[in-house]
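so i finally got all the pieces together for this one. its three components total, 1419 residues if u count the protein bits. some of the lines might not be protein, just check the labels. i wanna see the whole assembly predicted at once instead of chain by chain like last time, that was a mess tbh
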Amino acid sequence: MTQSLEDRFFSSDPAQRQIARSLYKRVKDLPLVCVHGHVNPAMLCASNYDWGTPVDLLIIPDHYIFRMLYSQGIMLEELGIPSKEKGGHLATPDHRKVWQIVCDHWYLFRGTPSSLWLRDELRDIFGIEEKINSANAQKIYDALEAKLHNPEFQPRQMFERFHIEVLATTDAATDTLHYHESIRQSGWHGRVIPTFRPDMVVNIDAEHFAENIQRLSQVSNIDVTSYPSYIAALEQRRRFFKEMGATATDHAAMTAYTEHLSEREAEIIFQRALKGQISTEDARRFTGHMLLEMARMSVEDGLVMQLHIGSYRDHNSAIYEHFGRDMGADIPVASEFTRNLKPLLDRFGREDDLTIVVFNLDETTYSRELAPLVGHYPALRLGPPWWFFDSLNGIRRFFDNVVETAGLYNTTGFNDDTRAYPSIPARHDLWRRASADWLAGMVLRGIIDEEDAHEMVVDMAYRLAKQAYKLES
Amino acid sequence: MTQSLEDRFFSSDPAQRQIARSLYKRVKDLPLVCVHGHVNPAMLCASNYDWGTPVDLLIIPDHYIFRMLYSQGIMLEELGIPSKEKGGHLATPDHRKVWQIVCDHWYLFRGTPSSLWLRDELRDIFGIEEKINSANAQKIYDALEAKLHNPEFQPRQMFERFHIEVLATTDAATDTLHYHESIRQSGWHGRVIPTFRPDMVVNIDAEHFAENIQRLSQVSNIDVTSYPSYIAALEQRRRFFKEMGATATDHAAMTAYTEHLSEREAEIIFQRALKGQISTEDARRFTGHMLLEMARMSVEDGLVMQLHIGSYRDHNSAIYEHFGRDMGADIPVASEFTRNLKPLLDRFGREDDLTIVVFNLDETTYSRELAPLVGHYPALRLGPPWWFFDSLNGIRRFFDNVVETAGLYNTTGFNDDTRAYPSIPARHDLWRRASADWLAGMVLRGIIDEEDAHEMVVDMAYRLAKQAYKLES
Amino acid sequence: MTQSLEDRFFSSDPAQRQIARSLYKRVKDLPLVCVHGHVNPAMLCASNYDWGTPVDLLIIPDHYIFRMLYSQGIMLEELGIPSKEKGGHLATPDHRKVWQIVCDHWYLFRGTPSSLWLRDELRDIFGIEEKINSANAQKIYDALEAKLHNPEFQPRQMFERFHIEVLATTDAATDTLHYHESIRQSGWHGRVIPTFRPDMVVNIDAEHFAENIQRLSQVSNIDVTSYPSYIAALEQRRRFFKEMGATATDHAAMTAYTEHLSEREAEIIFQRALKGQISTEDARRFTGHMLLEMARMSVEDGLVMQLHIGSYRDHNSAIYEHFGRDMGADIPVASEFTRNLKPLLDRFGREDDLTIVVFNLDETTYSRELAPLVGHYPALRLGPPWWFFDSLNGIRRFFDNVVETAGLYNTTGFNDDTRAYPSIPARHDLWRRASADWLAGMVLRGIIDEEDAHEMVVDMAYRLAKQAYKLES
């Protein structure tokens, strides 16, 4: 009667399920191309990495999980989330108790992607088949703890077992990439590449902007005192990242606003920023201008440009003050692309060799603005559903709203975008199943034929991401 | 071949229908928790209430119905809607003729929730199984008229037959609640509780604001001449409502804008308002400030705070002028929550004992703003789909867009929000069937298991509303 | 296993498919009522029309197709799209090579409506059953070329074979309608009527506005030197269009902004416009005012008023400069109707004999603004999904989001809105199938019964459009 886990995420219609199965079979064992994510490269340096406890592994790095517990009145302190003031783990609660709290409240996650990722991860990676609950919490904790000390569960062993073809990390522009260097020199064959993320030296309203620029001077060996030296330093960093294997950059902005400033205007605002004397308007214009500059550099150096638009970061002031960033309090805002991207597209939209991949958190823009834009401009591609929308319904809405206008080939496949390393296979698997099921529905309604569907499912699972991120060679 | 009415609103997929049936069976006879609505308490005072004609019962109070007829060129006067000038029922048309007009045009409602509610209400409450049409209009009128004179169809008898556990009305802050008092003293055991709705004394651009404040002075026994006395009077009314059984307040605003004013600023605007000298900006800021004040009072007195955001009231000027408010001419506008609610949430969002239930008419905010917000802030919950969205598709979109990010447990179950008293069971039934069917789909796709679904369906039908509105005791 | 083409676009659920089939059978052979579109009337003048090559027929006029190829790096020049500078076809590529490029890249259209329309058109009109690909490109070209020289494929023969009852073209206010006149005088019985589209003489920021006004003076025989003479000239043109069979007007605007200007204000702005000295604000206000004026004229002359809102035209500056308008670079923007249309609706919304049909490109407004508005105002109707949304998912979203609130009878059926003449039957067929399938789903879920569905499917396919556009006589 009910769906077996082998057929999970497929339609209950027998005809659709049968086609979905056959499409999924085609892709389920393809290598994972992890083109965008937040895995810590440090864990892949050492051949003897210490995961800490199951809570260190599964709860503390996962803001999807602790934000939900917080929303129901559980304080972050109770969950062992390190606060800023205390310098980290002071007065850390017993992780066994934290795990018990999580399991006692696991019903909160019913119907959420977190519950699916963790269920599939526990079963497929750690061999734990039981549904977690209050009664079995400690038993599962024991089982996890044992596994984490097992050499098979070392990050590099997982990398190989997961069949990861390439893993891109996301790294500050000022990062020395010493972990990446160390991985390279270790002789290990896993392909781990950096991604150039300059937000902290580009968004002039970032905390400690002047210090970040000092750091930029140091790592680039260019004394950044003016707008031209600033641009030179950024170009130096991009060259370095590219030498270290990067094929892409990544840029976050609350809005997609772009504007070209004259060099004089840019210099004036930059100088104000160094002195910490900027207005909100300055920040908006400078960020908008730097998106143009980064596109110009991408035309020159070939790095794929990722834009992540629409998150109001650190919305909960008290949480930000005590715990810092990335604490599950980033909330989307409505976005506009048609007008905001016009200055960028007028300059670089027709550059055939440029690839700008846009991500956003306002699903209304899929069919209204983004699909028409990527369905026209050669330089523009649409990234997969991001963040809250990296879910079964989110993925379905993405396909349904985007493909009719943009076509599949102006999208860029999947990226897992996660710091939860052992959840990577579960995330790709959910995408692959959702893709197969969606295609099966199209076959049955006579929109595409099975021949097309069999090509498309491989494109969605593997090829599109690899092509878009220039990982072919 | 076609769906029997017993299985109405369920998927046609046999596997899904079977699970939906079993889930629905679990909840179909649970008591009705009517936490928010607009039933007139007067009808529950008397043991001998006069319903008037079938048109008085079913058409005149139902702006969903007469707005649709109006949209197709039938004047409100033809339908017996009382106009303001004429002091009500002057020159009322023959209600039999009105009923005939309604039945002649009933095809207009094909596919609308109004048609489902009325169909189910006529069948289940009044025993009328025929589909209404021009030919049987008078026969159905006769049948309804006969029932309305039958003691079994008295409001209290219906209350008991409907299995209503609690019914919350919505009452002006200046209401003396004498009907509620009278129900209490009558010895009848039905639980009917008021809800504190202060819009007319808070929205300073309301018609007759100064008179409303005079009325507030009278009922509170506090001479409201200043901002502090105004606040004291509001607090007095809240205490009184709470004594009369209220567990919640309700606030309507066109936008979710919130702002904290200093006491001095609040006083200045309040004095201007008493003199009728406010600007649009004054009204916006004062309403935004009072939402903060009301949240502060809720922290103190424990009343649940409901926010209904996003309706442009009385859009049709001529209809408003001749017929007044609530005439089917309220039209939604786009809403923004992420920025607008920040001042409120920075102050009170972490209050664990506070419950703010948000309702809105802009479905795009479900996944983009509201689900992320209620999935983070302890004080925030999301109310069920409101008004135009209290429909089969509206409910499905709500679940599909909200639960993945917010979880089910940051939502608040159902409320019927109606003044159409005999339609209450049909409305809850539609919600319960839609919930069961949605859960069945999730079971079949391996997202939740049947054990979870059986708990969730009870939560959705009964528990969540009761908990959110603090009706447990 | 997979869907046969006879059942294309229907659900895979056997019960739903069976009902859908029976509903579709009812409407598949009904005449086509083509109430809005862009067919060139010239082709229906001659009894010996030269289609040119298959590329002239299928690719060059279809911006849906060449924008997608352009988005993947194929230049418009390569596709034979005539540029402005070169005065058209200079250096036109070999159309056989263009066709080969199109077929080589046909995979780009997988899942798009373009692929469905072309597939069905090739099969049903031209008898080509093969899926197009690189290998069979030239063979298909040959087959198409042969057909185009066959008298059976003359436009008038197609008109009759397509069973077109009426075809409305869209024509500039300054058009002399000589093609329409010529069709009338030819003795051919096909009903081809013009539509009055005054954008070029109303949107004062249009290129060459003053010249357009000169042309208006010429064709109207009214010397347009002032606002009153301008209005008189427009009224003259409307009378002329009506005499030539027009039943409707059509107005495009980026936003739905409406405002009533005094005659004095209108005159001042109009004079500035003649001198080419307007501001953006002038243009916005004048367009908003002229929408009111056009509604006033419609009340007087009975022409149905169509509003197409929300397209940012000619977004790609370089493409506009080299190739001109309608080059696949029109991108939607977010729209607002509740506030913007209020001035118009306050004046004319209650006019029972007036019909304003709104089209838009922001699907979020369907359920939030447009369905509530058309579900209330007698003068307002909602047009079918437009442009990017005239697709299977777009149509389903339209029905799901609109009908619950607006009812079906405040919508206006289908229009094909195309300049791709031979694709007309495929477009109507897709709509009819989508309607039948949607109704079948409603029957199975007990929302409507089969009796209702059988009436509704005819309304959707035929009656609603005919009634809304006053084509009954």
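Chain C has two domains: 5-49+154-468, 51-151.
Chain C touches chain A through 49 residues (CB under 8 Å).
anyway lmk what u think
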